[in-house]
Amino acid sequence: MTNSSEQITLQVNGESRTCAADTKLPQLLEQLDLNPRLVAVEYNGEILHRQFWSETQMKDGDQLEVVTIVGGG
């Protein structure tokens, strides 16, 4: 198991963010105060389908674009 005190740096929507090295994507979204049901995620240039989120572990240097889905018409 990774030492959770180790921090990694990644880019989220162009901003530098840090998180624990053992952070999975859903945990990261919670840390960013984002509702996982209302966002789409591009992970290192690829749209990441929701079914893979729970197994996607953040790595140093990852680049994420998180887009909030807005309802309405």
Automatic annotation (TrEMBL):
| A UniProt-annotated Pfam family | ThiS
- What is the protein name for this chain? Thiamine biosynthesis protein ThiS
Transmembrane annotation, as ranges: none
User: Entry's PANTHER family?
Assistant: SULFUR CARRIER PROTEIN THIS
**Domain of life (superkingdom):** Bacteria
Recorded hits in SUPFAM superfamilies, A to Z, give: MoaD/ThiS (SSF54285)
